[in-house]
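User: Could you go from structure to sequence for me? I need the amino acid at each position, not a summary. Structure tokens:
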């Protein structure tokens, strides 16, 4: 009976904070964004315990040499901090506001936006993430923003806790991004991520989603061999163990459809990824609202209704809005989506 319960339980982390009204909450107007360079290459460790091994990744003439601090390498979950920072800068750019490498924000807002706990443990984990991000040293010839960086740098140049409570809990935080990350933002070398990315439990699930988002995008299909996938994930497992881990994730996705935006299959040591909207029936186990598909004419109507906005990002928000209110499935998805986009544009204006 216990096994059945575990099988039925969603692999996603619970939604720790109520989903805000997308029309009024400024915090969630900043759609999650990730920089393409670190989505493509294994900059972050998959480990959940301190990973103190140096590693080098080489592919197609590019290399990344990553060296840990005494606290270990920056992890996939530490990446949440960068996603939050990148999202805030991109939102400012879209609003034609001045931007800089230095961001000041409330630690609480970051914890809420990335689906983290806001208890003492959540703040301690965030402080540890800051230390690993600043301490991890990277040397690479990967170009961001047309600039080839070949010196050694950290993803975050500096973190300063501007204000904290008497018990040491962070309130206001100031983060200085590295030139490498900031160049990527200014050159718009970023991609929108689904908010459920922050609910993926396993680092390898997050890494597979990042690669899918970078390589598959909205193509009909993307394939990658197990060996190359392991290389791009930076996994230190044996190939046999890595195969088992990938198989487990694919089986869970088949049962629950929990990986955002994409469905996955695995056969003959090849992982195949495709956007869920292309599935003829939404796919077995896919969440109800993921079965709602928009046609190309529908996307065109949405662009007219909300000029300047990323309609695919709006589609994710629309489905989250329907899910939150348990709305009935629209009879005419194209028209319903375009109408929602028009209301969104009325409330938010041009990006």
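Assistant: Here is the amino acid at each position, in order:
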């Amino acid at each position: 009976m216990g096994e059945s319960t575990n099988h039925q339980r969603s692999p996603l982390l619970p939604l720790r904070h109520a989903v805000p009204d997308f029309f009024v909450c400024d915090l969630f107007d900043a759609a999650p964004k990730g920089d393409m360079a670190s989505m493509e290459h294994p900059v972050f460790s998959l480990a959940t315990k301190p990973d103190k091994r140096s590693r080098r990744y080489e592919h197609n003439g590019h290399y990344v040499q990553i060296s840990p601090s005494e606290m270990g390498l920056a992890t996939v979950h530490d990446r949440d901090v960068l996603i939050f920072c990148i999202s805030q800068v991109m939102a400012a750019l879209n609003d034609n506001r001045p931007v800089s490498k230095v961001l000041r924000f409330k630690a609480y807002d970051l914890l809420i936006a990335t689906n983290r706990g806001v208890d003492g443990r959540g703040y301690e984990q965030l402080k540890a993430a800051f230390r690993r991000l600043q301490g991890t040293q990277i040397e690479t010839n990967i170009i961001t923003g047309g600039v080839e960086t070949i010196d050694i740098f950290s993803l975050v140049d500096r973190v300063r806790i501007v204000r904290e409570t008497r018990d040491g809990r962070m309130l206001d935080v100031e983060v200085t991004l590295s030139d490498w990350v900031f160049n990527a933002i200014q050159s718009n070398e970023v991609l929108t991520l689904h908010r459920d990315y922050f609910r993926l439990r396993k680092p390898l699930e997050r890494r597979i989603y990042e690669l899918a988002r970078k390589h598959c995008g909205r193509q009909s299909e993307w394939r990658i061999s197990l060996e190359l996938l392991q290389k791009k994930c930076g996994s230190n497992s044996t190939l046999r163990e890595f195969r088992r881990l990938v198989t487990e994730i694919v089986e869970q996705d088949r049962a629950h459809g929990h990986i955002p935006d994409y469905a996955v299959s695995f056969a003959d040591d090849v992982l195949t990824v495709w956007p869920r909207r292309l599935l003829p029936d939404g796919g077995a186990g896919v969440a109800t609202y993921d079965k709602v598909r928009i046609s190309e004419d529908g996307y065109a109507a949405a662009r007219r209704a909300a000029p300047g906005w990323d309609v695919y990002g709006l589609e994710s928000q629309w489905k989250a809005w329907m899910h939150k209110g348990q709305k009935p499935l629209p009879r005419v998805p194209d028209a319903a989506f375009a109408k929602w986009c028009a209301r969104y544009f009325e409330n938010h204006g041009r990006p």
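One structural detail worth keeping in mind: Residues 1-7, 20-28, 280-287 have pLDDT under 50 and may be disordered.
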